[in-house]
Amino acid sequence: MFGCLVAGRLVQAAPQQVAEDKFVFDLPDYENINHVVVFMLGTIPFPEGMGGSVYFCYPDQTGMAVWQLLGFVTNEKPSAIFKISGLKSGKGSQHPFGTMNLPQTPTVAQIGISVELLENLAQQTPVASAAVSSVDSFTEFRSFLCSFFMFSPARSCGRGCPSMVKAEGNFPVTGV
Fold this sequence. Notes:
Elements: E1 2-5, E2 16-19, E3 22-28, E4 35-40, E5 50-59, E6 65-73, E7 79-83, E8 108-117, H1 118-123, H2 137-156
Antiparallel strand pairs: 1-4, 2-3, 3-8, 4-7, 5-6, 5-8
């Protein structure tokens, strides 16, 4: 039903089911993770009117589990990217995994997914630092092109280039 992806690692497509409506992915070596992607596999949709709240759990200095709400996935929004690198020093929040006896290892964090009513998901407030940039992709692409255009002429001539073309605004294609 769910998958979890961390850059540079294999996709995890088999979460541990800890209750009828709760699933957990282990994230070993979590100190080196910046972002995590949680997605639905497309094999089993949520029941009508249901969605999944996504939580991040890490052990604090005493080894106790600290859970923080990241966001949610639904049939209409089947995937989400969360930034978890800044969460490792935050405070925990209310969560549905409190009565679970999940094993905690000092270097292993967990992503928890709790299946809940959509009305409940709408009332929850995720930690602000977990959100990824909300800038639309065209704006990011335009910014990338502008930076690329400003960077390329400086590298296009190589050593011994007499001067950069200033007035015409052209630069050789070999710079690309």
